[in-house]
Amino acid sequence: MSETYALTREAEAAQSLLANLRDIIGDDEQAATDAIEGETNLIEAITAVVHRINEISAHKDGIKDYVGRVKSRLERLERQEELMRTALLSAMATAGLKKLELPTATITMKATAPSAVITDEANIPASFWKPQDPKLDKKAILDALKAKRDVPGAVLSNGGETLQIRNS
Description:
This protein is an alpha+beta fold and 168 residues long. It has four helices and seven strands.
């Protein structure tokens, strides 16, 4: 039986017991506690629930710690992948290779579209900020820059290249 169900059942039994004893014990808290302890399992149910809450708290702490370590590992792996892709891109560009077919993958150098590079967020006009929590509308900035409009605090990058890896 779950701790919550047992606690509810025992609390109802204690309430019934106290209702029957109210004329005898009045507002005497110690007498009420003694009666509950002697006639019900409420104290044990409460103890079990407190024990379970402590277990849950320990599990939560352990999971939070584990998630933090896993997130750190994910960030390291993402950075490692980024560095390896950059190295591959550089090596292929140096060798003059635009496409390379390997037994496990085909690697293709592809041009990327220009993106908005924010050089000074404070100078971006209000029309490029989204109305919720202050957040730049980077798509609107990119569209304006592509349309050759001046956007103080932003410039259009030269684009670049990326690698597409299709696994066989």
